[in-house]
Fold these 3 entries.
Entry 1:
Amino acid sequence: MSTRPVLEATDLKVAYGGNLALDLPRIAVRERELVGVVGANGAGKSTLVNGLLGWSRGSPKVSGSVMLDGKDISKFPPHERVKSGLLLIPEGKLVFTQMSVEENLAATGGAPPAGQGRRHYSVEDVYALFPRLYERRHHLGSQLSGGERQMLGIARALRLGPRVLLLDEPSIGLAPRLVSTVLETVRSLVDSGLTVLLVEQNVRAAIEVVDRLVLLERGRIIAEGPASEMRDDPRIAEAYLGAHVA
Amino acid sequence: MNSGMKAGLLAVLAVVGFFVPMLLGGSGAVYAACVLIAIFAVMSYGLDIVVSDLGEVSLAHTVFFAVGAYTTALLSASAGLGPILSLAGAILMSLLVATALGFVTLQLREFVFSLVTYAVAVVAATIAQNWSLLGGSDGLRGIPAFEIPLLSFTARNDQELWPVAYLLLLAAIYLVSAFRRSRLGQAAMMVHLNQRLAVTSGVDPQRIRLQVFLVSAPITAAAGWLYAYQRAYISADVLETYFLILMLTAVVVMGRRLLLGPLLGVALIQMQEKFFSFGGYVDKIILGSVLILTLAFLPNGLFGTLAPLRKLFTRRAAPLGKPIPERS
Amino acid sequence: MNFTQQLVNGIVLGHAYALIAIGWTVLLGVAKLVNFGHGQMYMLGAFVTWYGVSRLGLPYFMAIPMAMLVGVAVGYVMQRVMLQLTLKQDLVSIMIVTLGFGYVLHGAAALFFGSTGQILETPFSTKDIYWGDLWFTYQDIAIVVAAILFFAALKYVIDRTRIGRLARMVAEDPQLAQLAGVNVRRVYLGVFAFEGAAVALAAALVAPRTPILTSMGFDEVIITFVVVVLGGIGSVTGSYMAGLALGLFTAFFGAFVSPAYATAAAFAVLIAVLVIRPGGLAVSPGGR
C-alpha cells in the first residue's frame, strides 16, 4: 500500500466576504481509508467538501492546493475533478427526481478509465449491493423514500468510478436504523477497496465506522486521530453531547 | 459625507441644473436636447424603481409612456383641456392600465411576468396602429401649445418649455428618492433580495409588486404627457423598442440604484446620438451593445468602476438578478 | 373563405408556429433561459435565406443550411457573452441582454439588408396546389412535413439518447449534473446554438409565406411564448399540440373576426389561461 495519500488538501482556506469559513493546514485521506469529519452545524463541514470539489454556492474565495494521487487538481473546474475520480454525494439533492432509477444509474460518459486505482462498478454490481434499487428500478427518483434516495445517490456515484468518494451528511433526514444501514454500507464499501471522506453531524454513528476522525470547529481542526483514540477524547464527548442535544 | 452635506450638495445641483442649457450656449438645439433629456430621464425613472428596487423586468413601460402621451393628445386636442388637467388624465389612465396589468400578472413568476409585459407592449402597438380613436397609423396631431392661463404661462418652443421639463425632472428625482426612503421602498428591496425572508417578515410580495407598479407607471406617463406637448404630435412610434432599450440602458449603465443614474445615462446616450452618430441603424447597434456589455461585463455600471466617486451618492449594492436560494 | 380552407390554413399555420417555437421549448425546458432576441433571430434567418437565394444566387437547399449556420453562430456568441450570467442564474440580466441582442440584430440587419420589405421566393412557394376548393402551396406541405419530422426527432433525442439525458439532467439540476461530470457550460452553449439553428430553419421554411421586413419579429416572440406556455414548459409534445391549436385559432379568428388583431387575441387567450392557472400548464423541468 503506497504511503502517498489519495486525496490531500494543503492550506485550504475558504472565505466568504471577509469571513474565513475554513482554514485547514492539511487534511488527507489514504488508500482504503474511511475518514470522518465531524463537528456542529456551521463548523465548516460542507464548506470543506465543497471546497475540495472546487464548487460552492455564493462566491467564496478559495485558496490552497488539492491533490488527487499526487496530481494538482486545484485549477480544475468541478466537472473535471469529477472526471478525475473525485466524487461528491451532496447533502439533500441526491438524485434526479424526474428520471427513473435506471436512468439515474446510466453513466454519463461510458466506463471510467480503468486502472489508476479507480473502482469500476457495473450496473449489476450496484444492483447486487442495493437490491432494493433493483426492485424499484423503473420508479422515478421522486417516488423513492429518503433511505432509498440515499442508496441511489451512493449507487450513482459508484457508477462513475470513484477514486475518492466524498459524502456530505448522508444521515440527514434518515431514521436512526437507516442511518446505521447507510453507514455500514459505506464501511463495507471501504473494506472492499474504496476510499471515502465522510462528513457527518451524527458523531455517534460516524465514530462506529470510521478509521480516523477529524473534529472541526469554526472552520478549524481542533482534534484528529484514530477512531479508537478519539472515542476517549473529552472534546468528542462534548461534540457528541452537543450533537445529541441539537 | 453626512446626509446634511449631501442634501446641501443636491440642493445646489438642483439650482445649478436649471441653468445648464444657458451655460451650454442657449441655442434652440441645446434647449431641445435638454428638454428631451429631461423627458426621457423622467421616463426612465419610472422603470428604475421597478428594475433596480423591485428587481423585476417590466417591458411594458413603453405602454405607460404611450398612455401618458395619447391621453394628453386626446384631452388637449379633442377635448381642449389644459396641461394640468391633461396631466391628471394621463396619470389616471396610467394608474388604470397599471392596475389591470398588475392584477393580471399578480401570480406570475419572473420570466413569465416579463414575457407578458413584452407581449402587452407589442399588442399595444398593434392597437395604436389600428384603432381610429388613436389616429391609426397617422397618429394624433394638433396638440396645442403648453399654456396655463391662470399663471399667464405659455411655452411655444423648447426654450420656454424647459422650466416645465426641469421641474418635472426634479419632481421625478424627488419622488424616486422619497420612495427609496419609504416603507414601500424598503419592502420592495426586501422582496428583491430575499423573497423568503420578506414573506416571513410579513411582507406580501404580490401586493408590494402591485404597489410599486402603481408608483412607477404615473412617473413614466408624466414623461409621455410632456413629450406630447414637446412634439405636438403623437403616433404609434412612441411604442417603439427604441424607448424601451433607452430606458433599460439608462437604468443600468451608470450603476445600480444611483439617484442620478438614469439622468446621466439618458444624457450620455442622447449625446452619443447627437455628436457621435453614424446613422440610425449604427446607433441602434451601439445602444444595444452598451446594454449588453454593461450587464454582461460591468454589473456595477460605469460608476462601479470609478470607485472614489461612489461616495458621493446614496447607494446600496443590489444585484440585478435574484440570488440563488440558499440550501438550509 | 370557407371552413375547410381555414382548416387547412390553420393546420399549416399551426405547424409553422410549432416549428418557430421549437428552439424555445428546448431553451426554456433545458436551460430555463429566455431569449428575447428570438424574434430578431427569426428575422435574421429569413433575411439570410433571402440574401442567399436572391443576391448570391444559391439554390434554396443551400441557403437553408447557410441561414442555420448564421443562426448557430449568433446563438453561440450570445450565450458566450452571457455565460457568467447563465451560471449565476441571473435571469433578470439574461432577459435584458437577450433583448439588447435582438435590438443589435435589428440594427445590423437593417444596415446590411436595408429596410424595405422583401419576398423570399423558393421553388416551393411559387407552386400552387388546387385540391377541389382548397388552395395551398408546396411550401405549406414542406412546413408541415418539416415540423413533424423535427418534433419527432427532438422527442427521440431527448427521451432516448445520451445527449437528451444530459440535457434533462442539466434541466432538472445543473449543480447535480456537474457532480455527475457533465460540462454544464458546454450544454448551455449547445442549447443556445440549437435555438439559433432551429429558429433559422423555421424562418427559412415559414418566411416565404409573407413579405419580410427587418423590423419584424415581435409577433413571433408572442406566438412562441403562447405556444410554449400553453404547451407546458419543456414539453415537446405539448408545444406541438399548442402550436397546432394556436394555428387553428389564428386562422379562424383572422378570417372571421379580424386579421390585424389575431395575435392580440391569441395573447388575450393566454392571459386568460395564466390568470386561471398561474403556473401556466407547466410540466416540471426535465419533463417530456
Entry 2:
Amino acid sequence: MKQRVQPRTLIVCLSLLCLLAVWLSLALGPVSLPLFDTLRAGLRLLGLPVAGDDLQQAEMILGQIRLPRTLLGLAVGAVLALSGVAMQGLFRNPLADPGLVGVAAGAAMGAAVAIVGGSWFGGMPDVLAPYLLSLCAFIGGLGVTALVYRLGRRDGQTNVATMLLAGVAMTALGGAAVGLFSYLADDATLRTLTFWNLGSLNGASYERLWPLLMVAGGVALWLPRRARALNALLLGESEARHLGIEVERLKRELVFCTALGVGAAVAAAGLIGFIGLVVPHLVRLLAGPDHRVVLPASLLAGGVLMLFADLVARLVLAPAELPIGIVTALIGAPFFLVLLIRGRS
Amino acid sequence: MMRRPVALIALCAGLVLSTQTLAAELPQRWVSAGGALSEWVSALGGEAHLVGVDTTSQHPESLKALPSVGYQRQLSAEGILSLRPDVLVGTEEMGPPPVLAQIRKAGVRVELFSSKAELDAVDENLRHLGQLLGAEQQATALATGYRQQLDGLQAEVKQAQVGQKAPGVLLLVGHAGAKPLIAGQGTAGDWLLRQAGARNLAEHQGYKNFSSEALAALDPDVVVFSDRALADEQALQALLKENPALAASRAVREQRLVSLDPTLLVGGLGPRLPATLRTLAGAFYPAAKASFAQ
C-alpha cells in the first residue's frame, strides 16, 4: 500500500474507536438497560453521589458483569496483539504469531491436565480449585516457552531458526498431549476442554482480572520502549548488533514478554486465536513497519477488535453466547483478506 | 405500538399482585439448565413457569420454543439475567462457577440438583422441585410411582432371566453411523443396559472408539444403537454400511437391533426412562416380551 495513514491520525482514530468500543461494551448486553440508567449507574460506581435506589440491578450488571468483562477484553486483546508484534519482530516473519514459541500449546496442555486430571483427583483444596485451570495454563505456557528458548540457545547465542523449529515441534507435542487427554476424558470434561480451546470472556471477575491487568500493564509499558531496538532488528541481527543493540538481551525480553503476556491472557480467557497474528498485520498495512507506531497502535487495535468480537459473541445468540474465538476469526479473517487484496492491487 | 406499554403495565401489575397474593417464597420465573430436570419440571406441571432452557432440554417438544441459554456448562450471566428469572435450576454439571456466582449476586436463586443415575437422586430431586413449585404431593406421588415402575421392571427382568441368561449387549453411540462410540462402564448408557437386564460387553471406562475387528470379536447378542443425526431405520442402515464388521455378529444375523433416543443418555434420570427400559428389556428377553410390553 503506497498511501499510509499518518501515525498520529491512526493513533487518534484508534483511541476514539477504543473509547467507542468500551462504551458499547458497557452499554449493550442481553439485559437491555436504558441509556440513562447505564449512565447514572456508571456515575454511582465511580463514587459520585447520584440519586437512584432503583439502580441496583443496573449497578450490579454494570459493575459486576460488564465492567470486568470489558477490562478483561481490553487487556487480553492488547496483550495478544503486542505479543504478536514482538514475535513478528523477533522472527522477522509476518507469519509469526504468539503461538510459535509454544505458549499456546503449553497453556492448552496445562489446561487439559487441569480439566481432565482435576476430575480424576477430585479432592482439590477449595482455595485452589477455582484457580487450578488458570494456574496450570499459565505454568504450562511459561514452561514450554522456556524450554523452546533453551532449545534455541547454543554457545550463549539464541538461534532464531532453531527456536522456531523447536516451537513447531513443541506445538505438535502439546497437540498430542491434549489429544491424549481428550481421549481419556469423559463426555463432560471433553466439552469443557473444547469450549476452553475456543476462549471466552464469560464470567470475568475482578479476582481473576488483577493478575492479568498487572501483566498487561507491564508488557504494555515495557515493549514500546524497545521499539527502536525492534526497528534495528528488522535490518538483521548483525546489523542490529552493529547499531549498538544488545540483540541477545532483546530476544530474551521479547520471548519473556510474550510468554508472560500470552500465558496470563490464556489463563484468564482461554485460547483466543487470530488477534496476535492479524492485528499487527493490519496496523502495518495501514501505517508502515515503524515499531514506534506499530506497538501502540496494535495495543489499541487489539483491544478494539476484542471488544467488538465480544459484543457479537454475547449479543448474537442471546441469552446464550458464542465462544469468542469463533467470532475473532470470523470478523478478523475476511477483513484481513480484503486489506491484503486491496494492498496488492 | 400502543399495546406494548399497556401490556407492560398489566404485566407489572400482575407481577406485583402475584408476588403479594401467592406464597411469596415460590419462584415464578424459572430457567432450567438440564435435560432431565426440565422434563421433571414439566411433569410436575411447571412448564408454564419456564422462561428459558439450556440446549440439553429437548423434551417435551414444546420446550424447544423457549429462549435457549446455551449449553449448561457454558452459561452466560447476563444472558440468563435478561430473562429476569427468579430461580435457575440445574445439575452440578452446570457452570462455569464464576457465572453462577454472578447470577447469585444479582439476587437470582441458584438451585443445584444431582445428575447421578440413582433412584435416590431422583427422589431427592423431585422432592426439591416439588417444594420450589409448591407441588409437594404431586412430586411425592411421581417419585413413588417412578420407583415402583423401576422396581417392578427389576422383578420382571429377574423372572425373565430364569428362562434365558442375560444377553451380551453393546451400546453404540454414533453420528450418521460413522465411527460409533461404545458405552463402557460408568456411563449412563451402561446403567440403562444393566437396568434392562443386559450384560454390557464393553469393559472400558466412558465412551470409546472401537476398531471393527474388536467389535466383531465381542460378537454381541444384541446391539443397541443411538444415533444423533438419523432416526431408527435410517440410522440402522447407516450403521451397518459404515461398520461391515458388525454384519457378521450374532446380533445382526438374528436381527436383534434396537434403537435408543440419544437424549436419554445425558443429564440424569428423566421421566421417559421406564418406558424406554421396558422396550429394551423386551428386546433383550424376546420370550418375555409380552410381559414387558404392558
Entry 3:
Amino acid sequence: MRWFSRLAGALGALSPTCKRATRLQSEAMDRRLSFLEKLGLRLHLFLCKWCRRYGAQLKFLRSAARECEEHGSRQEPQTLSPEARERIKHTLQSGQD
Amino acid sequence: METDDEPTTSQALPTERAKATPGLSDPERWVELYGDFLFKYAIMRLRDPANAEDAVQETFLAALKGREAFAGRSAEKSWLVGILKNKICDHYRRASRETSFTDLEFYSDEESSRFVAEGALKGAWIHELGPREWPNPGESLDNEKFWQAYRDCCGKLPKNVAAVFNLREVDDLDSKGICGMLDISENNLWVMLHRARMALRRCLETNWFGKGGEAL
C-alpha cells in the first residue's frame, strides 16, 4: 500500500492550509483561480467542514450585500436637503456672474 | 443657431450664451431638474450625504464651465451623469491618497489567532474558534433586526474598506474597474476584500448568529 500513502501525501501537499483556503475562497469571488489553486481548494473543501462552512457564509454575505440596498436605504437620504439645494443654486448663480 | 439681434455684442454674458447653447437648459433650472437624480446616484456610490452633496455641486460647476463644449452631443442628463462619475472617481482617488487603503491597522492579521500557530497542523482552524454553524441564514434576510446588525457590522469596517466592499458586492464592479478607480493593485484589492469579508463574517457570527439571531 506504499503507492497509496504516496498518493495521499501528494494530494495532501496540494491541499492548502485553512488559512490559505479562506483567502482562496474569497479570491475565487473576485478572480479566476489557477488550475492548481482550484484543484487544491476543491481537495481541501472535500476534507474540511470548517472551510466549507466558511465558503457558504461568504456566499451568504454576498447575497446579503446585494439586498442591503433595499434595507439600508432608509438610513440614507434619497434627495438633496433643502439647505444643500439652496447652497448649490447660490453657488451656480455666483458661478455664472 | 438663434438669430442674433445685436451683432455688436460679440462678448455676450455667460447666461445669454448658455441660453444659446443648443440642447442645454438654463443652468438655473439644473438643480430642480437633475439635483435629486444626481444626488441619489452619488449617495449610492459614496455612502455619505455630505460627500454626495459636494459631488453634485462640483458636477454642476464643472458643467457650467464646460457647457461650451457640450454642443448637444448627448442628452443633458447623461452628460451630467458623465461628469458626476468623474467627480466620484476623484473623491475615491483623494481618499486613497489621504488614508492609505493599505496600511490600516485593520490589516494587521487579527484572525491569525484563530488558526493553529505551529506544528503539523499549522494554519488549520482551531476548532473552538472556527466558523460556527449558522442556523437558517436565509430567514435572517427577512428580519429587520438582522439588517440592523448587518449595518452595525459594516459600520465597524474602516470607511475605505467598506466603500471597496460595497463597490464590489453592491455595485458589482469587477476588480479591474475598482482598481482603475482607486488606483490600487489588484492584489491589494483582493487582500482588502478578503479582510472585509472575514471581519464581516466574524462580526455577524458574534452579534447575530451567535445570539440565536433568528429567534430575536
